[in-house]
């Protein structure tokens, strides 16, 4: 079977100087006692050159944040990406990136299996970290990273960007104000079609690269993070049914980037057994008595990237669809239903700063990264680590890993499984 390109990061199995996350102990005395690290221009470096890396670069540039360099899985990939994106530096190795004094924030957008080690090393080098989801491959790794982030005067975040659609922020505000009343139940889905055919292939389908869960971990965690953020509710038990629709896929002899399998057809392939799920449905129980259910699929023809939720409360309901992101449906019992169009003038005062265009000028997927990064970088510049963090943290990334392991256990055991609260996870 074809081997994946070697990452430029040291491998803890072959490099004795590179410790496993769980074995890493940070000395607080290594860091300044107050205010974190000096904030100058907050230069950024991006790790990864696939689908999502240019999204990070574009969002940073829209915020006038300097992108200092980029690192690919090889020196050549670094050079190609730097030329294509007009980035000053193409790093030869992760060590070179971390040694760059012009870099204050590391954006980890590499394959999932590299996240834990790259985040740990970046924090050890005194860099703030923004990591793509999932934070790591196991709840053990995410627990170590969450603990490490609590003990450092550095800012850490996970890219659950869907929170930052303006109307999702508005929905959260309305729920927090009690306008829906106590939440009865939540339903929703996240469905795509980019892996519909057995000739559609990407590293994410391989358990050794992306983890034992795929659709749930890759897109389902976005839905779970969004709904728990909107409602303020925590999930305490799950019952899952997962399915691998295409147990054999055809591996192209040349790599295919995320979402490009529909346009890039390889001439030479080899069959590969796939163990990760294409589809899943999960029943949810929330603490406090609310219930829920969601479905994930990467084999739903015609749905390109569709996130939906409907939240029903004692006094009203609301619903949102990412393929119509500038509309929020408001449901009523005793009067006509409403559709709120995204318009800063109509949004809560605390939400308006995350809606940068007038009503009728639509905002979408790229804008969510801009607003997420805005929240993170402004938090770093403010320098008050005791202030609430208005973005997904490593603790949130750990919570999602705990949920994923409970969902996988439920599917394998064919029963309800209690979710161990993240704070109690070993």
List the helices and strands and how they pair.
Layout (H helix, E strand, L loop, with lengths): L43 E4 L5 H10 L4 E5 L3 H11 L3 E2 L3 H6 L5 E4 L6 H10 L3 E4 L7 H12 L5 E3 L7 H11 L6 E9 L15 H4 L4 H17 L3 E9 L4 E5 L16 E5 L5 E8 L4 E7 L8 E8 L3 E5 L5 E5 L6 E4 L7 H4 L12 H18 L11 H20 L3 E2 L8
Parallel strand pairs: 1-2, 1-4, 2-3, 4-5, 5-6, 7-12
Antiparallel strand pairs: 7-13, 8-11, 8-17, 9-10, 11-12, 13-14, 14-15, 15-16
Please give the number of β-strands.
17
Q: What's the end-to-end separation, in Å?
A: 36 Å
- For the record, the CATH class of the largest domain is Alpha Beta
Backbone structural class: alpha/beta
Helix content: 25-40%
Main beta sheet strand tally, sense and closure: 9 strands, mixed
- Might you state the CATH topology name of the largest domain? Dihydrodipicolinate Reductase, domain 2
Integer-rounded radius of gyration: 21 Å
Order of helical and strand elements: EHEHEHEHEHEHEHHEEEEEEEEEHHHE
Your description of this structure?
- A 9-stranded mixed beta sheet has the order 16-15-14-13-7-12-11-8-17.
- Helix 1 (53-62) packs across helix 10 (365-382), helix 5 packs antiparallel against helix 11 (394-413) and helix 8 packs across helix 11.
- The protein has 426 residues and is an alpha/beta fold.
- The chain has 2 domains: 21-162, 3-Layer(aba) Sandwich (Rossmann fold), CATH 3.40.50; 166-363 and 400-410, Dihydrodipicolinate Reductase, domain 2 (2-Layer Sandwich), CATH 3.30.360.
- The chain has helices at residues 53-62, 75-85, 94-99, 115-124, 139-150, 166-176, 207-210, 215-231, 349-352, 365-382, 394-413, and strands spanning 44-47, 67-71, 89-90, 105-108, 128-131, 156-158, 183-191, 235-243, 248-252, 269-273, 279-286, 291-297, 306-313, 317-321, 327-331, 338-341, 417-418.
- 46% of the residues are buried.
- Helices cover 29% and strands 21% of the residues.
């Amino acid at each position: 079977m074809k081997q994946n390109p070697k990452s430029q990061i040291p491998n803890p199995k072959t490099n004795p100087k590179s410790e496993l996350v769980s074995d890493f102990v940070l000395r607080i005395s290594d860091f300044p006692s107050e205010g974190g690290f000096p904030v100058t221009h907050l230069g950024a470096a991006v790790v990864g050159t696939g689908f999502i890396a240019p999204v990070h670069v574009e969002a940073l540039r829209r915020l006038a944040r300097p992108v200092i360099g980029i690192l690919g899985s090889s020196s050549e990939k670094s050079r190609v990406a730097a030329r294509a994106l007009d980035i000053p530096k193409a790093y030869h190795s992760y060590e070179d990136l971390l040694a760059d004094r012009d870099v204050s924030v590391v954006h980890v957008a590499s394959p999932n299996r590299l996240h834990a080690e790259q985040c740990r090393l970046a924090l050890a080098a005194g860099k703030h970290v923004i990591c793509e989801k999932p934070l790591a491959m196991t709840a053990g790794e995410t627990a170590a990273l969450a603990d490490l982030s609590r003990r450092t005067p550095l800012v850490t975040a996970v890219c659950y960007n869907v929170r930052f659609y303006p109307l999702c922020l508005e929905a959260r505000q309305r729920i927090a104000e009690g306008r829906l009343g106590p939440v009865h139940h939540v339903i929703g889905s996240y469905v795509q079609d980019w892996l519909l055919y057995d000739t559609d292939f990407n590293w994410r389908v391989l358990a050794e690269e992306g983890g034992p869960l795929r659709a749930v971990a890759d897109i389902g965690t976005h839905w779970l993070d969004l709904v728990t953020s909107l409602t303020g509710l925590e999930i305490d038990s799950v019952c899952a049914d997962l399915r691998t629709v295409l147990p054999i896929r055809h591996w192209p002899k040349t790599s295919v980037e995320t979402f490009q399998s529909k346009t890039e057809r390889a001439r030479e392939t080899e069959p590969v057994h796939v163990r990760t799920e294409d589809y899943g449905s999960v029943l949810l129980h929330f603490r406090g008595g609310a219930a829920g259910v969601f479905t994930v699929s990467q084999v739903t023809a015609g749905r390109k990237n569709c996130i939906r939720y409907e939240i029903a409360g004692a006094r009203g309901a609301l619903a949102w669809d990412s393929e119509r992101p500038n509309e929020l449906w408001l449901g009523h019992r005793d009067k006509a239903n409403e559709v709120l169009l995204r318009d800063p003038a109509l949004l809560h005062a605390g939400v308006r700063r995350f809606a940068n265009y007038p009503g009728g000028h639509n905002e979408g997927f790229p804008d969510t990264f801009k607003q997420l990064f805005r929240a993170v970088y402004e938090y770093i510049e403010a320098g008050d680590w005791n202030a609430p963090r208005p973005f997904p943290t490593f603790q949130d990334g750990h919570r999602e890993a705990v949920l994923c392991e409970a969902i996988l256990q439920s599917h394998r055991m064919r029963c309800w499984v209690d979710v161990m609260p993240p704070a109690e996870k070993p």
